[in-house]
Structure formats: C-alpha cells, structure tokens
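Changelog-adjacent note: as of this version, every example in the card shows the full chain rather than a window. The one below runs 86 residues end to end.
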Amino acid sequence: MRTGFLPDEPDYGHLAMKLFRWSELQVLLAPHGTIVDACAAGLLPAAETEEPELREFISRTELAVAGEPGAVSSGQHILAVLRLEP
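Full-length structure tokens:
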C-alpha cells in the first residue's frame, strides 16, 4: 500500500506491476487533456451464483457506486475518459 508496487514473486499470479490510486492517475493524465470522467471497474466481487436476482443486484449496485469519488480508487481497475487537448 505504501508504494503501490507489487513484486513478481512466486505464487502472486501476476507480473510485477504498479498500482495507482485515482489521485496519482489524475496527476499523470491532466497535462494531456481534460479529464471528462472516471469510475472503478471490478469494485464488487463477481457473483458466481445461479441466482439471477443476486447477479443483477451486484451489477446494479456496482454501476450505481462505481463513479463515486470514494470508490474510484477502490476497484480492481480504474477507467478514465480524457479529452485530448491540441
């Protein structure tokens, strides 16, 4: 959490990577254009259930909160829309 860097270690299941908070990405993106919007993806765990009502509830809830400022840094991924400036 302190550095955002995940090493390439046995049993991690991924390559070495840098994880970003939304505040860090804003700083990187801002010089290149206008940030139009951002949201979290993978905020809630995928529902591996046979119950369609539960799957629908999880999807609906994630869509409802994914764009909230407190949620953007909390998902597995961050999606951002940037309008490039000439």
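Structural remarks: The longest helix spans residues 52-65.
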